[in-house]
Design goal:
CATH topology: Rossmann fold
CATH class: Alpha Beta
Radius of gyration: 16 Å
Shape: globular
Number of strands: 5
Helix content: 40-55%
Strand order of the largest sheet: 2-1-3-4-5
Number of domains: 1
Distance between the termini: 9 Å
Order of helices and strands: EHEHHEHEHEH
């Protein structure tokens, strides 16, 4: 079986690449999917539908178009990794984690100790909490082994 793993959250560090490289080193049977990680492209996804005077409506249209991708990828994944970084609040990642919880899709949170309290509900529904991509790779080594 090839596991499909959805990568959600923070886009300002190379955690996705670290996970992919770690899985490649161990030849794990995984494939990765993700939301669009180009911030400008994601923010402007709805611009094709016409200009908006209000930032709310621009964001609203882009969020709906982005949701076509994220909804389908989350619904079809075997596992999600949800990363919360220190620089920005990733409300979209929290939403993805909640969606996984509602669907019964297992997920692992990845974040530092300094955000334990604000993420207590998100972590409570997670199957694991990791602080490094290497820990996630170790979990995946165990989970996907035969």
């Amino acid at each position: 079986m090839i596991w499909t793993i959805y990568l959600s959250g923070e886009i300002h560090t190379d955690w996705r690449e670290q996970l992919k490289q770690g899985c490649e080193v161990h030849n794990l049977p995984v494939e990765f999917t993700s939301a669009v990680t180009n911030h400008e492209a994601s923010d402007s996804a709805g611009d094709v539908l016409g200009a908006e005077e209000s930032g709310f409506w621009r964001d609203h249209k882009s969020a709906k178009i982005n949701a076509i991708r994220t909804k389908n990828l989350i619904e079809s994944c075997d596992l999600a990794i949800v990363r919360f970084g220190d620089k920005y609040k990733q409300w979209n990642a929290a939403f993805d984690a909640g969606y996984c919880a509602a669907l019964g899709t297992p997920y692992i949170t990845l974040h530092d100790e300094n955000v334990i309290h604000p993420l207590k509900e998100v972590d409570a529904s997670a199957m694991a909490w990791a602080t490094t991509p290497e820990q996630v790779v170790e979990i995946l080594k165990y989970v996907v082994s035969k």
